[in-house]
Amino acid sequence: FDPRHYLGTHCYGFPKTGPHRLRFLLESVKDLRETLKKKGGTLVVRKGEPEDVVHYLITQLGSVSAVAFHEEVREIL
């Protein structure tokens, strides 16, 4: 979870993630974790800026051959 997603928007300061969306996200992650566990997998969930968290995880795991992610599209006004 990137803390920047829970701050205000760039232009008007409205919250990007309100309480209902946050609850949905948490329930979705919990469900995904449970589904993966039933299939013998796991889900790593961390809070922090992705560029720092991913670097830390790669360093800890040591045998990572690829990393894939997406970046939020920002509207330019």
From TrEMBL:
PROSITE patterns: PHR_CRY_ALPHA_BETA. This is CRYD protein. SUPFAM superfamilies: Cryptochrome/photolyase, N-terminal domain (SSF52425). GO terms for molecular function: damaged DNA binding; deoxyribodipyrimidine photo-lyase activity; FAD binding. The gene is Crydash_0. It comes from Atrichornis clamosus. Residues 1-77 form the Photolyase/cryptochrome alpha/beta domain. Coiled coil: none annotated. It holds the Pfam family DNA_photolyase. It comes from the Eukaryota.
